[in-house]
Amino acid sequence: MEIPYTAKPRPDTGLYNAKLGIWLFLASEVMLFGGLFSSYILLRVGADLWPHGMLSIPIGTFNTFVLIASSVTVVMAWASLKLGNPGKFKAYMAATILCALGFLSVKSYEYYVKFTHYDVWFKDDATAEKYFKAAYGEKGTEETRKQFVERFHLHNTKATYDPAQIQLAGHIEGNPLCTNLKKLVGAKQETIKFTPDAPLGSHEHPHAIEVKLSDVQRLSSYVPAHSTFFAIYFTITALHGLHVLGGAIVLAYFLLTVDKWWKKAPEQFTNRIEVGGLFWHFVDLVWIFLFPIIYLL
Amino acid sequence: MQATTQTHSQEAHSHEHHHDPGFLRSYVFSSDHKVIGIQYGFTALVFLMFGFLLMMCMRWQIAKPGTAIPLVGGLLENFLGDVAKGGVMSPDLYNAFGAMHGTIMVFLAVVPLAFAAFGNYVVPLQIGAVDMAFPRINMASYQCFAAGGVVMFVSFFIPGGAAAGGWTSYSPLATIIPTQGQTFWLIGMVLLITSSLLGAVNFIATVIQLRAPGMTWMRMPFFVWAQFVTAFILLLAFPPLEAAGILQLVDKVFGSSFFLPTGLIVSGKPYDVSGGGSPLLWQHLFWFLGHPEVYVLILPAMGVISEIIACNTRKPLWGYKSLVYSVLAVGFISFIVWAHHMYLTGMGTKISTFFQTTTMIISIPSVIILTCLFMSLWGGSIRFNTPMLFALAFLPMFGIGGLTGLPLGFNFSDLHLHDSYYVIAHFHYVVAPGTIFALFAGIYFWYPKMTGRYMNETLGKTHFWLSLLGMNLVFLPMFFQGLYGMSRRMSDGGATYALVDTAGKVNPANEGIVTALTGTVMHLNVFITHAALLLLIAQIPFVINVFMSMFNGKKVESDNPWQATTLDWQTPTPPPHGNFTKEIVVYRGPYEYSVPGQTSDFIPQNQPDAQPAK
């Protein structure tokens, strides 16, 4: 028993099976990411406050170019096979996989930075102002207010916010990962050493201050539980990251088995690379949409 | 002569490659579409029975709230602990069973049976293909499904029990229930969605790529069309639910607030989350799948019915082209009706108006399909065998289910009917005596092809008449209960809001309240439970029949025992790996029954000339 059209295209459709299969699969992927992007829009439109500039644009731009480069190399890998050159294929495919790993490493670094960065909200206005002053001196309240306005782009609104609604951002001594108030209190900790972020327009961090946990209303690192922005950021980028990882594993498998397959079924193998490449372009394309909506807008 | 040599050489060929694959490879990890179809079918039937038994426990609780469930009460207490203390179903357990009844029936029983089982077994045969386009992906699809089923089943036994937020799993309710049942539910759903996605890709690719020479689009049996459209619905409607499932999983596991609004109070305390989410978002994403899913439930059933009706009336389907265009229209429109499930969410009257309009529009192609099937009966020489009886019963039953949906589709009448027993009656008429009858019909119809033996007609007809009676006695009274205002999802069957409970005791708290449920309405609870018991008993002949006929059913006289035209009957019985022993070329449409001037009353699709079949 042999299934027809696994390598040669069917005349009336002009497609071999796998190519049709991958396009159908990608259609469903469009709906999956479409659902997530729609959720992003709905959540953002309905949000009281939506932060800006929470992610490093240079790093994101770098990663965008890494992925675009990998899309080029994956096409070159396929073209090399079409030209009957498995040696060049290996070089291009290796470059593609290196790009994928580079992208994932950069993304992991970005995640790590977020997991160790904290926001603290205080119990009441007086306590909040006390800590703001400890952090940034006499004009501490104005400084944190400025940071708040900057983060949520409130320059043109008349809305006012009480100090207790305003976060103090910074790092906890020892750089703990993803901790929160419940965990700290559970570990019988009473105070933390907190290094606030540099004031706006400066790169110099203020001195670390002592924060009593009993004064804290909420404490969260930049994780999904922090806010809807980070929730959607981590969910979509993690799902995208999984796609990159899955794609890289499949492409690596092609790279490792090229010699065997090239001898056995060159045409079918070339088709596989094309199909793998289509998936890879799709993953790239998702990022092209992700980058502006999460980093830039 | 040429054909014979070809057959022989093919056999020799297959012998070379087939060193006996062993039991595991042939029956468990098989990539053959027919084995996978049967695996799906068997698993789905087991879940169908399981889902039904969950409901039987719930029906007892509705009829006799607070009393121990006979027979299984002790068992429930043993396995599930305090939630079934003394064999009495607690409200928590009722909620869990209710949520899981819906989930299991839809995602683990009816869809796998209608789409995956029949689709896998029959579609490649009907288009003259050797197998599905991607056999190993097909196998992976079943394995994901089985894993999903295991996760769902195991969730009953974890501390706190299974998901209890309803099969729709509305947030915040589903998220804030403190047990992990919902987490299991979500992981199970992601597996099931993956499974159906792999299946859908496979079906579409198979139909587009692997049709035999001469099998043009308009020569495809209607069953294939129905499955084809269903596959597209699954392919495109399921991913948004997967997205929603992922978001709810992140809410549940990582404490985010996609679906949890700001200022959420749970048990009198502010809920410790960042807030800012939207409960409405879940409902949109859920129903974006949930409504097309209704058509996933019904379209394959219509496909099965049309095959059986054409064959057993001995005449072509009436309006084949209208059927095809209607099924395409239904498939398309099913994507833009979802929010008619959400009239009461406060999403706004303009949006309601839009969805009310599209909902009315989609009833047009649905009615065309049903009408064509009714018209097909006209002037036919009908054979009243068991598959045909089920097919005939499907038509009015689905008709009742469909027509009673119209008042729910109008948002003004939905205000009264929403979330009442009327809704339950409506969609059960569509799915239970509708789809499930079609599936029974399909099982009786294709069983001879799968096993080489007929199912027993006496047992079959007993099964049919008792089921038909049972179904109607169960679901018809629910319309009245619903119209009277009885709300669904009440673990005491409405006793709290009743003037007189099922035991005849007057509840003084509700005296003088005009809308309190009367004794008559309450007593229907008991009646329905008895009818459900009848329905349970009605399934016994079926179970016996399936197993008994495998060994001593009447043997088929030929490979085409029903004298049908489609290609699935032009194979050996049961079809071997690779399906066809001869080259298949299609020369004619799918339903050439009783062609004037012919001596035989059917002409198979692969018969070259219109000369009388000898």
Q: Tell me which oligomeric state these chains represent.
A: heterodimer
Number of helices of chain A: 8
**Biggest sheet details of chain A:** 5 strands, antiparallel
Share of residues in helices of chain B: 55-70%
> In angstroms, what separates the terminal alpha carbons of chain B?
18 Å
Strand content of chain B: under 5%
The gyration radius over C-alpha positions of chain B equals: 25 Å
Helix content of chain A: 55-70%
What is the structural class of chain A? alpha+beta
Sequence of strands across the biggest β-sheet of chain A: 4-3-2-1-5
Fill in the CATH topology of the largest domain in chain A.
Four Helix Bundle (Hemerythrin (Met), subunit A)
CATH level 3 topology of the domain at 29-219 in chain B: Cytochrome C Oxidase, Chain A
CATH superfamily of the largest domain in chain A: Cytochrome c oxidase, subunit III, four-helix bundle
Name of the top-level CATH class of the domain at 29-219 in chain B: Mainly Alpha
Largest interface: A-B, 44 and 47 residues
Strand proportion of chain A, as a percent range, falls in 5-15%
Quickly name the level 1 CATH class of the largest domain in chain A.
Mainly Alpha
Assigned CATH architecture of the domain at 29-219 in chain B: Up-down Bundle
CATH H-level homologous superfamily name of the domain at 29-219 in chain B: Cytochrome c oxidase-like, subunit I domain
